Every structure is written in structure tokens, then in C-alpha cells.
Amino acid sequence: MSGESGQPEAGPSHAGIGWPNPERNRAGVPGGVIRRAGAQGRRSWIQKVLEQIMDSPLQCVTPSEVVPVTVLAVQRYLLEDEPRDTVPKPPLYCYDVTISDGVYQEKCYLDPSLNSLVYQNILKVGIQMRISRVSCLYNEKRIGQGILCLGNVHCGETSDTICLETPFRNRAHEEKPERPLRGGKSHYLALWNNEDPYGDIWLTDKQPEELNFSDTKIISLSHLEMTWANRRNFPALLVRIIHKSKLRYYGKPDKKMIEPYQTFLEVADSSGTVSVIMWNALCPEWFKSLRVGLVLLLQDYSVKKSYPFRIQPVPVDPQIKLISTMEICLNLRDPPTNIIIVPEKQVKPEWRLPKLNHRFTTRSELDNMPENCICDVIGLLVFVGRVQRSKKKENREDFWSYRWIHIADGTSEQPFIVELFSTSQPEIFENIYPMANFVCTQLKVVRNDNQVPKLLYLTTTNESGVFITGHRGQPYTYDAKVKNFIQWIKTKSDSGEQRNMVIGGYYPYPPVPETFSKYSSSIKVQSLLTAMSEVRKEIEDLQYREQKRIAIQGIITAIKYIPHSSTTESASASDTLRNANRPSTSQAARVENQERNAKRHHHDEPMSSQCFPTTSTNLNLSNKIRILQGPHTNPVAVPQPGTSVQAKGIKPGMPTIFNCRPNTNPNLQGKARKTISDRWESQLWREKKFGLIDHLHYSRVYPESIPRKFTFEHRKFLSQQYNSQPSKYIPPEGRPPKLDDFKSARSLGHFEVTILGLNHEIAIDVAFLPMYCPEDIRTSQIDTLLTSMNYSCAYPRDANANDRLPGPRAVAGDIIKAVTELDRVHIVGILDICNLGNNNVEVYLHKIYSPENTS
């Protein structure tokens, strides 16, 4: 394995372009061997560019011929500070891009000025790219080594046919393990976060070893705690792994660490439990082989005083002593630690090693669990959201990766709602889908009973682990609650359950409180409100799959209904697919993209004339339509449009926007409504819309943001659609379907809402997604998923089974009519901004605070 041994040279290229002298090529200069295309084959464009560079007195050239090449890989790594750098810079991640011209593959260095093309997922695997400026960067410490540097590129559409059989022109690029072209690092990082192990340096084949313990001196943890300060040499430890943390990457440009990783193990013997820290090159060697429950023999370790600010996880067994005064350190050197996995069959009862216990909780028990309580869950995945990212710190390049999931266990009509962060298990995190049995350990309860809707969900911790494929042989299978779940799942039919499964889409969770003052106290940002003039920058600063929530002030001046599965929406979806493949240039990456919003779909035509007819619908419902603000909210009666906010059933401070119900006037029963307007605009908007200094158009709903009904036979395709973009190209299996071919889990469509700034100078178009699925109203999992969306309209069934639910257009008309009551009212809007990559950005209206609840 690669570690500190065989340390690579700093500077450009471990393997680069070849020496131009043919004699040297035949001699095989390291890193400089060029494969020549056969005489009968077409000539390599990469080869011609290399020859042009070698013949040019300049290091930077414009290729004489610009042809499309295919992007096969985009790989990220940290580049150390150059010796000439006197002031440490923030982490600078670099990218190597592997291209193919159909004859050869070549790994190239991407000029850092083009990094934003990767940040926005414009430069990605599978696309065709034209390179119009190339330079050569040489390693001055080695003979004949240099690398191609891409200085100007134009990213085009996804390639229809991609061949992975073309060889590398430079054989050194095929060497294992893969190494970055520049710097002293021996490995690449995961493309979108630092927690996931990535690449071939991460070993998985460590096996247990039969041992003879007769000559091995072993010390207990409690005895070591009392004597370690006076010892130079430490006897071996015989311990069981109780918890294992996710990886921590601590690389910095000014630190010359080859593999700067760290992970924590909580280990225990009969006398106590202690933290073990695995450092640096030991992590790639051992991390993927160590799992909770294994018994280890640790030799040649070091001991130090524990870090005072780290909080250890609470032992599952309260009888085990928590040792917090010392830490065990495992290193590849100083001293070189010896780690041995002990076969379970060789573990003796007299060692009295603690058994692995779990804290499994059922969904019915969760309602009574206190905040911050730790638990394990097992259940059936009924909803898997798309992968999202959030910044660890502002103005940094480091992100967390996470997704929302729903887990049902049969003990409640409500599922577990889980905020699942990456647990350094990408093989599971990137391959979960509905209908799978799922286990997640060390989850923390997040709850707030003092807001409406009440907040209750689970989130992963540093020690969380996930399991998805078969539970046979796992230690938790002996737990009584696990056995009960397994019995419950045997009663479910796959065909029946598949109808209730949903994957992907925009998921606005967690919900915000009912008043703006509670919202203000619940978030941690420097500036609570975002000025309309700052919204564009907030949007353009977002990176791929980053989602951010902001609050703005304004006036709702227009609303338009976009029906689901209508001709309008189908055309919009087609436009979306075309725009998703719109070419992007590297020039746009170097400057602020002031034209991004001009590419958005918008409607500047008047919004006052179009109406659509509605067929006769029986609206004799004993239950009014309610605004459901979360899965635990008690429904409240909603006033008719025009009634005072102090009407019966409405408390002061309760939001009034989008409170909608059908007209239940008995005089209208059995009669058809004449017309329902599908759009509205205020007189204020007619006066101001042509005099704006800026109008932001972000109301389009892209296919990726629509939750889809899950189908098992297409599970791989659907999982890929809602995962992050891969670092290396993965060929599809057969002819892949289109995302629009899968049925939406929504049936109401969406709204385009225009919010005008208080100064009447800037406006923004945003999307609003109420959820409404009449055919699924009796299905608890689907209904729970949909009604957990903030401000979601749902129609409870009346006791009379013959009552019919109002149609989507009737609902849309009621919503639009309710909005007209807010004409010229100053509101605070909570917006969710989502960057889908490739210059596709959506802005959703998550909630509105009216004057009664903004104080």
C-alpha cells in the first residue's frame, strides 16, 4: 500500500508528457513513454496537440484543430503550498481531468481558474468538451516530465457513445494506486466531500489471524489508566470495538502530510472503555476492514492525555467504566503499531469482553423520547431523497453530504424521518433505495415541541453506521425488536408496498416554526434577512447540490398555476432537458455570470385573461381542506377567503397564506363551477413590472425535483439520478429510460409566484409546490411523505366513502383566490435555494409570514 514510504516528489507530474526525443521514448524514460497510434488507425488529437506544444517556443498554445473529446474522469485532491508561497492559503482543491479522443486517454491538470466549472457540475463525466487553450507544466526536478494543463474549455452535451477501451497514451497514468498529477499527495479525495474513502489506496482484505496468546502479555484498560504515565513500554491490549467514527480529513496546503486522515474507535474490555485514534496512513490500510464488534489485539501503540473538548459516546452498557483521561494512538511509525484481528471462534469467555448491545427504538416509542437521546433503528425504506450538500463553514470549499430518508417499522402510521449524513460508507450511502431493509445506529433525536408543527426527526452522529444488504450474521439480529420487525416485513407483499414508495425530488425539511420570531431564534446566521439586491449573489454562490434557506421581505404580486402532466408542463420538461445540456464555456467560469438568470424560463405576458373550465364536482365534504404543516400537526379549520384572521379556529399570529378549501355552499352543490382562473396579477404588478432594475426568474421545476413513484426494476437508474455526479464515468446498462418516464408522486402541479421587493425595484419568480395525491390519500406512508412538506394541501377522507375529492384544478383555483387576499401586504418569505448543477437553479417558496406573525 502507499503510505509515507515511497513519498512522491512535490511539484508537477508524477507522470506526464513524453520527452520529444524518439530514442528516449524507446529507452522508456519513467513517466515519458508515448504509445504511438497504429499506422492504419486515425491519428490521435491528443498526440497532435503534444507535438504542437513541443514545436512551439511558448508553453501555452491554441490547438490548430479543436475537436470534441470525452470526459471520462474528474478527480479532486489537495495541493500543497508552493515553496515560494509565504502566506498560507485556504485549502485549494485541484482537479485532474481524464479525456479521450477515441484513440488515447490522457490525464490533464485543470487550471484552477476553471474550478467553478466543477463546482457547478458543468464539467462532468460523460460530456463532450472542446479544448481551445493548452499549456505544459514541467517538473523541474525530473527529466522529461510534464503535464498538460487545460486553460480554456467549452463543455458541451452528454456523449451518446463512450468507449472505455482506449488506452492511456502515457502508461504511467495506468499505474496503481492512482496518484494526482501535481503535489506530494499519494491519493485522490472523494469528489464532493472529504468523509468518504475514495480510490484504490483503501484496502478491504484484512483477515483475522489465529494467535498463540501464551507468550503475549496483556494489560487491562483500567490498569493502563493508572500506570501509563510511568511506563515507557506498554503491554498488548485485547479489546472489542464498540463504536467506530466516520473519517476525518485534516489536510491543509501548508501541511506536508501524505495521508492526513483520522478516525476514532471506542474499544472496551472487562474493565472499561477508551478512545483509540487511528492516524494517517493506517486509515487507508485498516478503516474499511474494521467494523463494530471485532476483537483486536493492539501492540506497539502510544498513550497520551485525552483531548479535553472531545465528547465520547455514551457506553451502551452503563456498567462499563468510561475512561476519559487518556487516549490510545495508533500510527504507522513512532512506534509502528501492530493490529491483529482475533477470530471470534478464538475469543474465550474468561476474557469477559463486553458483548455488543444496541438501543433499538420503534417508531411508536420515538414520540416519547427526549431530545438528544441516542438510539438505533431498523425498518423498511419508504422514501429516499436526493443527495444534498451543505457548507461546513462559510467561504470554505468543504461540504457535508446528506439526504433525507423515511423508514417504516410497522409500529406506527408515521415513519422515522432521518437526516442521513455520509457515514464514510459510500458503497451504502450511494446505493440505498426504497423497499430495502435498513439499519442505522447511533442516531440522535432532534425535537421541538414548542413550535407548530412540532419538530421530530433523527440525525446521524459521528459514530453512526448503516447496513442495508442482508442482516444474517449481524449481532443485532438477536434483538427482540429486530425479530419483531422481521416478522412484520414477512407479512408485506412486494407488489403492494411498491405502490407506496417514493424516491427523489425536492424535500423541504425541516419545517420552519409558525412565527417569524421563533424562526429567528432557531437559525444561526450573521444576517437574518436577505435584501432583494443580495438574492442574485446568494443564488450564484451556491455550488452543485447545495441547498440553502434564506428569508426575504416583499409583496406577492402574481401567481400562476402550472398543472402537472399538462401540455405546458411537458413542454417545460422538454426545455429543461435541452437546457440541461446547454454548452458552457470556461470564460464564464472566470467572471461573475451575469447572464445566468436570462436562461431561466419566464413569462412576461399579462396574467389576467387565461381561465380554464372545470367539470362538475361534488364538493360535499364534512372535513374542510386543511393546511398540514407537518406529520404531527393537529389540523385547524381554515377561513374562507375574505374572512378576518381572527375567525373561529384561527389564532392570532397563525399564517394565512395558501389557507385553501373548496366552496361548500349548498347552493352550488351538484352545479358546475363556471370558471377558475389559473393566474392572477395585482394592479401593483401591472404598474411596476416594466420598470424593474432586475427580475430574477427561478420558478422552473426541473424533472429531478419531482418525487417519483419507485419501481424496483429500475432501481439502479433511479438511484443514480438522485445521487451526486460520479467522479468516473459509469456506462449505463442497456438503453436507460428518461426520468420523465416515471410517474410523479404529485398530482397537483406547482405554482409560479412573483414576489416584488419592498422598494419596487427588484422582483423574483419562485416555485411553490403544494402536495396533493387523491389516489394515495388512504396510504399512510405516501400521505405522511406528502403532508410532511410544509404548507402542503391534503384532503382528508370523509366518513361517507361516496364523497369525491375536489380535483387539482379546483384546489389550484382556491389557492390562487386565497393569494389575492394578500394584495399589497408586506410579507416575509422563507425561500429554499437549490443548485442542481449545470446552471440549473430552483428557488422554492417554503413558507410565508404575514404581518400578524412576523413580530
From TrEMBL:
> Which stretches of sequence are listed as region Disordered?
1-29, 570-613
Q: Known InterPro entries for this protein?
A: NA-bd_OB-fold, RADX
A cellular-component GO term for this protein? nuclear speck
Pfam assignment, any one: RADX
Q: Which GO terms describe its molecular function?
A: single-stranded DNA binding
The UniProt entry, under Gene3D superfamilies, shows: Nucleic acid-binding proteins
Q: Name one GO biological process term.
A: negative regulation of double-strand break repair via homologous recombination
> What are the Polar residues biased-composition ranges?
575-588
Return the protein name: RPA1 related single stranded DNA binding protein, X-linked
Its source organism is: Aotus nancymaae
What is this protein's gene name?
Answer: RADX
